[in-house]
């Protein structure tokens, strides 16, 4: 059950400015996608995530600027993330700050999920869209990774840089803007979108840490969660499903264990919400498969394996049930490259 996802306009507030910077009058372009300039004057305004993705795709098409999402990120800062962003600077250390952002990002963005994955020596701080039928996913990922880098620099200092940047989309004809900003190797056609950095940075103490302010902001964030996100099981479930697809541990037993509830409890609570574990898993697979088909050149075999299917035929049958089209035909119609 993917509820209609919303997005605070936050990082999108500069769309009119960027359109003017590129030499285009914003009002006709916004109107063609059902928006008007006034909606971008208050960062707290919420819009449909899907509608915002369509607007971004339209801006790219009209302007011919294939790094529009990057420009949005370049002109944004962590405060554009709302209360999730304000929680960052008052946290005690980087690990705590990133986990606060992950836990409360849905107050800003319901269309995607942030994640922190820790390995033996490195950490990956990433973002993934978990909604189907999203347009301009590559632009959104460029925006999100620029914002993620700005978050890290706000916590660790302006000279901070990742060891590597992972982006799922193909390398653009000109990647100088990305290379200049990140100052790190960029791996395109990756299976995820993330910043890779030394794990030691997670222990970095934040100079502006303020326990009292952090406590106040957490209470306010929890209050908003209670009001705005009453179906509190679905968000963590969808987070786990998306991340568990990578390590293939996607059974109800595995997910229930990570949620610290019994498998029967998981099924019962999902039934009360009008959905099921299988439905949520398939929705997550559908959303990710669309992005892999449109934004990457990965083969159907690679995509099938990434989504946990035993064969291309099993994936193809499932995808045709979701979209009404075989994945190869769907890719031919919507592939970005």
Attribute tags:
337 residues; alpha+beta; Arc Repressor Mutant, subunit A; 2 domains; 5-stranded mixed beta sheet; two-stranded antiparallel ribbon; 7 strands
Structure write-up:
This protein folds into two domains: 65-203, no CATH class; 234-334, Homeodomain-like (Arc Repressor Mutant, subunit A, Orthogonal Bundle). Helix content is 53%, strand content 9%. The chain has helices at residues 15-21, 26-32, 49-63, 68-74, 83-90, 94-104, 137-156, 176-182, 211-228, 234-247, 252-259, 263-272, 277-295, 300-306, 312-323, 327-334, and strands at 6-8, 46-48, 112-118, 122-129, 164-166, 186-187, 194-198. 38% of the residues are buried.
How would you summarize this macromolecular structure in one to three sentences?
The chain has 337 residues and is an alpha+beta fold.
**Beta-strand percentage range:** 5-15%
Average per-residue pLDDT, rounded, comes to 90
Give the SSE order as H and E letters. EHHEHHHHEEHEHEEHHHHHHHH
Number of helices: 16
Fraction of residues in helix: 40-55%
Number of domains: 2
**Gyration radius over CA:** 20 Å
Uncertain residue ranges: none
For the largest beta-sheet, the strand count, sense and barrel status come to: 5 strands, mixed
Strands of the largest sheet, in order across it?
A: 3-4-7-5-6
Structural class: alpha+beta
Number of beta-strand segments: 7
Shape: globular
Distance between the termini: 31 Å
The quaternary structure here is single chain
